Amino acid sequence: MIPAAPARLQPRGWQALWRDAIRDPRELLSLLGLDTLAGVSDAAAEAFPLRVPRGFAARMRHGDPHDPLLRQVLPLDEELRPVPGFSLDAVGDAAARAGHGVIHKYEGRALLVATGSCAVHCRYCFRRHFPYAEQTAAAHQWTEAVETIRADPGLHEVILSGGDPLSLSTPKLAALTDALAGIDHVRRLRLHTRLPIVLPERVDDALAAWLSRLPWPVAVVVHANHANEFDSAVDAAMARLRATGASLLNQAVLLRGVNDSLDAQAALSERGFAAGVLPYYLHQLDRVAGAAHFEVPDDQARALHAAMRARLPGYLLPRLVREVAGEGSKRPM
Ligand SMILES: *Cc1c(COP(=O)(O)O)cnc(C)c1O
Ligand code: SF4
């Protein structure tokens, strides 16, 4: 009789790694040797649960309560403090929905809220309060989203966003792109995703095969806020994505205590480039309730950006922008 191969010898698929994410703040802190950290909040974690893939946690520095990756995911008391000007729908998404899961704010581009799920929960995220679960484009087999796009010949670019669109299975994504392939006015596809950074195993053979055979030029906009988010597994994921022919860009959010220094920003651009990723946007924080402690004042953001311009080659300088509800593009600062 031939014994079955022990399961642990098989490489674990991304879905298993996804399910195995850390969800208990105490477990995360104890892994980092930080059992007694003041300001960590159960109530904040109840409002928006902690979620961190183990591979991402492994990139955090042991014993450092100020670790820039840890600060992005740790639920804190400060989130519960109401701050004037910080609201639930900071970017006006509720008003901009054109159909189920389709947000059409900018000319020529439609954003599909493909799913509400993410592999990591980022404390600064404007989506933390948005009831996306009921309003995702995938909820009805994509039909309504695809019909919304088909009905508007001015839409040339479809942007898959969320949540994180790569939290959907590859067959589900392929069903969408198969349907979109029948629409002549669609010319480009873009993905906005944090998964290749926080769970690089997501970039598996099936995903690469799907991307390679898409009929349009593809841009993949990943989301890393700090150079330490890159490691050899992320490098391998980026190389695979590039091998599909996709253009790789990074967007980051300017976050106090995470990446609000010249050195941190320069390192992010340079580390991204080493992985084959060019900087795209550096977003000024959306003023969403619970995220006020991450805000960098506009003056400081502009001064930082000017210093980045002096230090970095032009192609490694992200555009500093803010999203303003009702405007036809991101607003350059
Ligand atoms: C940010 C955003 C886009 C993309 O804007 P670009 O400047 O093209 O990157 C498109 N639609 C919506 C609703 C957005 O919020
Ligand atoms: S949408 Fe992006 S920024 Fe927001 S929680 Fe998900 S991965 Fe993080």
UniProtKB/TrEMBL annotation:
Q: Has keyword Cell division?
A: no
- Where does the Radical SAM core domain lie? 104-327
Q: Is Lipid biosynthesis given among the entry's keywords? A: no
Cofactor(s) the protein needs: pyridoxal 5'-phosphate; [4Fe-4S] cluster
Keywords assigned: 4Fe-4S, Iron, Iron-sulfur, Isomerase, Metal-binding, Pyridoxal phosphate, S-adenosyl-L-methionine
Entries under Gene3D superfamilies matching the protein: Aldolase class I
Q: Pfam family example for this protein?
A: Radical_SAM
Say which domain of life the source belongs to: Bacteria
What's its catalytic activity? L-lysine = D-beta-lysine
The cross-references to InterPro entries, in alphabetical order and at most eight, read:
Aldolase_TIM, EpmB, Lys_aminomutase/Glu_NH3_mut, rSAM, rSAM_sf
Q: Per its UniProt record, what PANTHER family does this chain match?
A: L-LYSINE 2,3-AMINOMUTASE, LYSINE 2,3-AMINOMUTASE-RELATED
Q: Which family does it belong to?
A: Belongs to the radical SAM superfamily. KamA family.
What is the name listed in the Swiss-Prot or TrEMBL entry for this protein? L-lysine 2,3-aminomutase
What organism is listed for this UniProt entry?
Answer: Luteimonas kalidii
